[in-house]
Amino acid sequence: VKDCHVLVVTGQEGMLDKLRESNVLLEEIQKGLNDYLEKKRLFFARFFFLSNDELLEILSETKDPLRVQPHLKKCFEGIAKLQFTAQQTITGMVSGEQETVPFSETVVPADARGMVEKWLLRVQEVMILSLKDVMEKAVLAYTQVPR
After folding, report:
1. Which pLDDT tens digit goes with each residue over 102-126?
2. I need a surface site. Which of 13, 104, 113, 131 has the fewest CB within 10 A?
3. How far apart are CA 110 and CA 88, in angstroms?
4. Would the CA dihedral through 38, 40, 41, 42 be positive or negative?
5. Under 8 Å between Cβ of 37 and 30
């Protein structure tokens, strides 16, 4: 097509049918994408706090777990970031006030084989376990530390 003005292009024979077919295909793709994102949200419920765009950004960064950091605040209230070692192992969590809670167990995102939702679920489990351990230590220390 030499003239690419809208009225000229849409006037071509069969163009309306092509546009309708493209629209149907686009709707099928969007439905498939929404179904995919829904499955991910059902596996890791905290993904419901994220928009589709944010969730797609997280899911597209399966090789680099550090890229999830900007979205942690929406998934976990009070968590600004996770502590990573040089080997990309997660060893703790950090609040917005820079308070750090070391994890009782380490989380290795690579063990999830690219499934971000799987290692985030493990992070959630270890967060709960770690907070429980910290509280138990605090209760024991309370009776031993002079006031």
Report:
1. 999 999 999 998 899 999 999 999 9
2. 13
3. 8
4. positive
5. no
Helices then strands, counting H and E runs in the chain, come out as 5, 3
CA distance 68 to 70: 6
Query: How crowded is residue 53: how many other Cβ atoms within 10 Å of its Cβ?
Result: 8
Q: Comparing C-alpha atoms, which of 133, 138, 76 is closest to residue 105?
A: 133
Residue length of the chain: 147
3-class state of residue 36 by DSSP: helix
Q: What separation in angstroms does the CA of 4 have from each of 1, 12, 17, 102?
A: 6, 11, 18, 61
- pLDDT tens by residue, 65-104: 998 999 999 999 999 999 999 999 999 999 999 999 999 9
CB 107, CB 122: distance < 8 Å:
yes
State the residue for tokens 């092509």: 18
Strands 81-84 and 90-94: antiparallel
> Residue 94 pairs with which residues in a beta bridge?
81, 100
